[in-house]
Write a structure and sequence with these properties.
The protein is mainly β and 81 residues long. Helices cover 0% and strands 37% of the residues. The two termini are 30 Å apart. It has strands at residues 16-26, 46-57, 62-68.
Length: 81
């Protein structure tokens, strides 16, 4: 997209805001995943880089769309061989 192009809100047509973030480490919660099983946050961390993004309408105060890109873990490849 060029600087003059934007993703309009389908509800009101207002210009949306793009917000994105990178999350690179996930921790297990202290609450049980299943009855009788409690995770340990120190032992259950997952190292992976995940990009997330949204288009948000400031006029309607609604998220227009959201996406997550595939996680990239150190030592793995998602390239086709």
């Amino acid at each position: 997209m060029s600087e003059t192009e934007y993703t309009p809100c389908p509800k009101c047509g207002h210009k949306t805001v793009l917000a994105s973030a990178i999350v690179n480490e996930f921790y297990a919660d202290d609450e049980p995943y299943a009855d009788g099983v409690e995770e340990s946050p120190e032992e259950e961390s997952i190292d992976a880089e995940v990009n997330v993004g949204i288009h948000y309408c400031e006029k309607c105060h609604e998220i227009v769309d959201a996406w997550i890109e595939e996680p990239r873990q150190e030592g793995t490849s998602t390239d086709a061989e």
